[in-house]
Amino acid sequence: MSGQSQRLVVVPTVTMLGAMKARLVGATRGHALLKKKSDALTMQFRQILKKIVSTKESMGDIMKTSSFALTEAKYVAGENIKHIVLENVKSATLKVRSRQENVAGVKLPKFEHFIDGEIKNDLTGLARGGQQVQMCRQAYLHAIEVLVELASLQTSFLTLDEAIKTTNRRVNALENVVKPRLENTIIYIKGELDELEREDFFRLKKIQGYKKRAIEKQTAAANQFAEQQSAEKVSLREGISISSAHNLLSAAAEKDEDIIF
After folding, report:
1. What is the pLDDT of residue 259?
2. Which Pfam families does the record associate with it (predicted)?
3. pLDDT-based confidence at 1, cuts 50/70/90?
4. Domains plus CATH for the chain?
């Protein structure tokens, strides 16, 4: 890009120079803060990514254990255990609630599981089948807890990804667009102000030269007039012509100079 497109179109004045310097200081501070924010978000992003990987790796074993527990419950208590369980369930005991966590100014959604009410063991009368159903229930409760945690991590992962992209775009814009334009604008204003100062200095020198020449002309005219007056007085007093009086005055002036030197 050319230098013209890399600076702002402003009037080169001292006030504008101060304003551009203040904007550059603000842009520098904003760039530093956004860079720190990007680093903090990236660190949190990597931690969440590690947790997601470990949770997904353990999820396979947990779901396998839960499915095997369900198969055991059906084998011991029979295939009709589903209807007995549904009859004993009135409302959900395991529920999920959401909250927000602030990380470097970014609000990350968090999901938490909690138990609403008491877990009743109404199926203990099924001999060993009731015990197996309870074990299956505990296995699936653990699986739901891990799923809720994984959902929370996945949502935070996506939110952080968007926040990091937005922050990095702002950092790059400040670093590659805003700051260079302000710096080039400051350089342009300083150059224009220096040029104006040189023009003013040259103008003052020219004016002083004109005044000096005018004073010299006035002094020469005054000296010529005084010499003319003196020549007329000498001409009247001595009864000679004005040119002879001029010559007489010139000779007297040269004689005075010889005496001085």
Report:
1. 53
2. ATP-synt_D
3. very low
4. 14-193 (1.10.287.3240)
Mean pLDDT across the chain: 80
Give me 28's structure tokens.
């520098």
pLDDT above 60 for 5: no
Tell me the three state secondary structure of residue 135: helix
**Per DSSP, which regions of 41-105 are E strands?**
94-103
User: Rounded CA gap, 261 and 254, in Å?
Assistant: 11
Token pair in block for residue 230: 């003196």
- The token pair at 133 is 């159903």
Rg of the Cα atoms in the chain: 49
Spatial contact of 156 and 49, defined as CB atoms under 8 Å apart = no
Q: In angstroms, rounded to a whole number, what is the distance separating the alpha carbons of residues 134 and 122?
A: 10
Three-state secondary structure readout of 139-205: HHHHHHHHHHHHHHHHHHHHHHHHHHHHHHHHHHHHHHHHHHHHHHHHHHHHHHHHHHHHHHHHHHH
Rounded Cα gap, residues 3 and 20, in angstroms: 17
Q: Is 236 helix (H, G, I), strand (E, B) or coil?
A: helix
